Amino acid sequence: MTERLFKILNEDGAPCHGGYGAWSLPSDDAPGEWMPAIEGKLIACENGYHLCREQDLLEWLGPAIFEAEYRGERMDTDNKVVVREARLLRRLNWDQRVARLFACDCAERVLSLFEVEYPDDDRPRRAIAMARRYAVGEAIFQELAAARDAALAAADAAAEAAANAAARASDWAARAAAWDAASAGRATALGAARAVRAAAWDATWDAQTKRLIWYLDGEFDR
């Protein structure tokens, strides 16, 4: 099976994790143009086009995720690959709605840790449920703000406890869902990334990656 590679960018094709310039974006029926070949020695974070493998995605979430390919020289590092030439093949199914839903999944994965310690405190669970409602257009901003505040209070109550990971994950899910749609593109994705990191303390990285790929490929909409 051919290895899938990815590139995370801003909506307009500009880098969101460092770098400069803008990538050629794909259209509905054609990939983007090959980016100019990099000269000199490939050096991670300094010289080369940086792409992600599936196992790297959780670390680099951003506003827009594309499937990409490369040709020529390649160098692998712990959390990315560096290549001499690359292009974007297609944009994947990742936007504010998907980011919020994925953040909720990440929070739910460790929610039981919080509820074991605080069985009578349903604020994180209610915050996640509200975030899901907002993602599908069934809740308003004011409701989400209240859920966010409740999740923050729950996180404060769980400070220094092992269940704090679940509380923080729930908080980030609520925050991701609560941001105003007009300015939430990048912030939502970053919120989802933080939720992933919190959840990954007690859940497998592979499971979260598989869930993310499921969203990126649009399986839940089919």
How do the helices and strands line up, and which of them pair or pack?
Blueprint: E1 5-9, E2 49-51, E3 64-76, E4 81-91, H1 96-117, H2 123-135, H3 141-157, H4 164-178, H5 184-200, H6 205-216
Antiparallel strand pairs: 1-3, 2-4, 3-4
Helix pairs in contact: 1-2, 1-4, 1-5, 2-3, 2-4, 3-4, 4-5
Task: Kindly describe this structure.
This protein has two domains: 5-91, no CATH class; 96-221, no CATH class. 43% of the residues lie in helices and 14% in strands. It has helices at 96-117, 123-135, 141-157, 164-178, 184-200, 205-216, and strands at residues 5-9, 49-51, 64-76, 81-91. The chain has a four-stranded antiparallel sheet, with no helix packed on it. α2 runs antiparallel to α3, α2 (123-135) runs parallel beside α4 and α4 packs antiparallel against α5. It is elongated.
The biggest sheet amounts to: 4 strands, antiparallel
Overall pLDDT confidence: 80
State Rg: 19 Å
Order of adjacent strands in the largest pleated sheet: 1-3-4-2
How many alpha or pi helices?
A: 6
- State the secondary-structure class: alpha+beta
Q: Report helical residue fraction.
A: 40-55%
Strand content: 5-15%
**Which regions have little confidence, pLDDT < 50, spanning 5+ residues?**
174-189
Give the beta-strand count.
4
What is the string of helix and strand elements?
EEEEHHHHHH
Shape: elongated
N-end to C-end Cα span: 23 Å
State the domain count.
Answer: 2
